[in-house]
Amino acid sequence: MTVEPVEARTQLRRFRDIPFLLHGDDERWRDGVRAYESWRLDAQRHPYFDAGDAAYFLARRGGRPVGRIAAHLPEPGRSSGYFGFFDGPDDDDVVTALLDAAQDWLVGEGAMSMTGPVSWLPEEEFGVRIDGHDHPTITGRPWQPAWYEQALRRAGLEPGEVRRTYRLATADGAGDPPSPADEDPPPHAGGYSDVHLVLEGVAAVPDVSTTLASASFRSAWRVARAARRGGFDTAVCVRCDGDPAVLVPRLLAAAKRAGYRWLVAPWGPEGAEAETAHQVFTRRWPPSGESERSARR
Question: Which of 33, 99, 149, 248 has a CA positioned 20 to 30 A from the CA of residue 112?
Fold first, then answer.
């Protein structure tokens, strides 16, 4: 088993395709929009790289791609970094090798810890799923099998923040929503953003996963064009800069007016049961990074 840095376009395509190779047969997992996934990984186009930097690593066993990870820093000089785009088999050797590769790159950048999976920002994709595994992927809330959490724990990472997700019926929304804010829509849904879901301090995007997952390869472009004209059933909150108990009800009212049936959000009324939960994990090391690497050997 080997881990290699991703430096060529062919390697980047393998990196992008790893989740499909691992989970494509599971109906709970849904592929993203391929063009959007390519954009997310393109250092020449994605705005994360305006200030941030990253390295991609690909794990192979017997020459066959079996796992991936990205190590990244949102800005130079930070002592805390991230790992993201983390996918692999239920194999501790592969998981440890990927985490070690991410750590080694971050050590070279001066970081002393890494938290993840986060891809690229916590608002975009946060953590691994630790609850609600029966619910499929939705935009910004990826599905992973239970062994992801277990593998990170076995690798010795410290469990951190948990974010729960609630599914709210827009029919329960009350009051008039505030006017849309004069802000750029969040990029999380690629070209499918909805300006009616961008309010001051909070924003959502349509859940495109179900619509696009139902399309065959030949019909994907036709479905994509239709999807851009609206008609999505569910919106997903991807930005909440404030008290969610205040901001989410406003967003719920906006989603109701825009014709959505459901809003997936990081808050629910008292007594509501969370649909899913995601958690991040952290690995720390001494400033030189040498002591822990020696201990792992």
Answer: 149
Tens digits of per-residue pLDDT, 73-86? 999 999 999 999 99
Pick from 129, 140, 145, 164: nearest CA to 234? 140
Pairing relationship of beta strands 2-5 and 53-61 according to DSSP bridges = antiparallel
Asked if the peptide bond before residue 117 counts as cis, ω within 30 degrees of 0, the response is: yes
- DSSP assignment of 166-233 equals EEEEGGG--SPPPPPPSSPPPGGGGGG--GGGEETTEEEEE--HHHHHTS-TTTHHHHHHHHHT---S
Closest of 70, 75, 36, 68 to residue 53, by C-alpha: 75
Cα–Cα distance measured from residue 288 to residue 271, given in angstroms and rounded to the nearest whole number: 48
109 pLDDT higher than 80? yes
**Token couple for 74:** 């949102």
CB distance 120 to 26 below 8 Å: no
Q: Which DSSP letter does residue 34 get?
A: H
Helix, strand, or coil (residue 47): helix
Count Cβ atoms below 10 Å from residue 72 Cβ, excluding itself: 26
Q: Token digits for 108?
A: 């070279």
Q: What is the rounded (10 degree) CA torsion for 31, 33, 37, 42?
A: 160
